[in-house]
Write a structure and sequence with these properties.
Helices cover about 45% and strands about 15% of the residues. It is built from 9 helices and 7 strands. Strand 5, helix 6 and strand 6 form a beta-alpha-beta unit. With about 260 residues, it is of the alpha/beta class. It is globular, with a radius of gyration of 17 Å. The structure holds NADP nicotinamide-adenine-dinucleotide phosphate. NADP nicotinamide-adenine-dinucleotide phosphate binds next to helix 1, strand 2, helix 5 and helix 7.
């Protein structure tokens, strides 16, 4: 990663929102977009986390805004959009990284122990939250002549891993939603998915014991965990002019996993 902000970089003059931008993959993406010259708004639920991330990004020289937001809540997302418009004048890029798995019944248990309410919560976060944010930015992007949305999916959309049926189903739905929206919103707004494999982030690491690490590395031909910067590099491509003819795609950033 470059160690300074390129004020005349590829994203100079662009405004980006990164949901889930306070941690893990989203935090990495926010920094990479900011270092390429974008003005960046990071959104997550916790006031202290958004304030701390805003400070960290500003300390790096990035023009940043942190905004407490729950992506599952329409008024909360409307507040985010209004604040970003007021501060930066518009929106060009949205990265939907808020998401993941949130409890054991949802993502780690046998299917017969999955509670239907957890599956519904999973859809609310991973699918409906992304839908709410994307729908909210469309008028803003159209007012600027177009824009780019990148949704963070998962290789779990493809692999039918035991105990991951619910999480995988939400990420498969996200792929489908993205493709449909891409078709309807072309040519002005491009929407794509980056589907990470196993990524080294503090929260996911805390849930990996030695056996799980061995299994995950064994199914990753590149032999290491990916980093948030590996994912951010794909996001950079998708939001750049180099991807101006790319929409409705899923790019797997997974160290070769799932290629068999
Ligand atoms: N890590 C991996 O190995 C991996 C692999 C494949 C795909 N992914 C996907 O990549 C994305 C990011 O994963 P990660 O590992 O970086 O997650 P993480 O470290 O758990 O961070 C999740 C972020 O989302 C925010 N968030 C959670 N619920 C939210 C809500 N309702 N509204 C707004 N913000 C919310 C969290 O902040 P608050 O708590 O403050 O809300 C946090 O900033 C997810 O979509 C995940 O499914 C991750």
């Amino acid at each position: 990663m470059p160690d300074s902000v390129d004020k005349e970089g590829m994203l100079a003059g662009k405004v980006a929102i990164v949901t889930g931008g306070t941690e893990g993959i989203g935090r990495g993406i926010a920094e990479v977009l900011g270092r390429a010259g974008a003005q960046v708004a990071v959104a997550s639920r916790r006031e202290d986390a958004v304030a701390a991330t805003e400070r960290e990004l500003v300390d790096l020289g990035i023009d940043a805004l942190g905004m407490a937001t729950d992506v599952r809540d329409v008024p909360s997302v409307a507040g985010l959009i209004g604040a970003v418009r007021d501060r930066f004048g518009g929106i060009d890029i949205l990265v939907n990284s808020a998401g993941g798995s949130f409890n054991d019944s949802f993502d780690r248990g046998p299917i017969l122990q999955l509670r239907s309410e957890d599956l519904i919560e999973g859809y609310r976060l991973n699918v409906v939250g992304t839908f709410i944010c994307t729908k909210a930015v469309v008028p803003e992007m159209l007012a600027r002549g177009g824009g780019s949305v990148v949704n963070i999916g998962s290789m779990a959309a493809y692999s039918a891993a035991r105990g991951m049926a619910s999480y995988g189903a939400t990420k498969a739905a996200l792929n489908s939603l993205t493709r449909s929206m891409a078709r309807e919103l072309a040519p002005d707004i491009r929407l794509n998915v980056v589907a990470p494999g196993h990524i080294d982030t503090p929260r996911t690491n805390s849930r990996r014991d030695a056996a799980k690490r061995a299994r995950q590395l064994a199914e990753t031909p590149m032999g290491r965990y990916g980093t948030p910067e590996d994912v951010a590099a794909a996001v950079m491509y998708l939001v750049s002019p180099a991807a101006s003819w790319v929409t409705g795609e899923v790019i797997r950033i997974a160290g070769g996993m799932g290629g068999e």
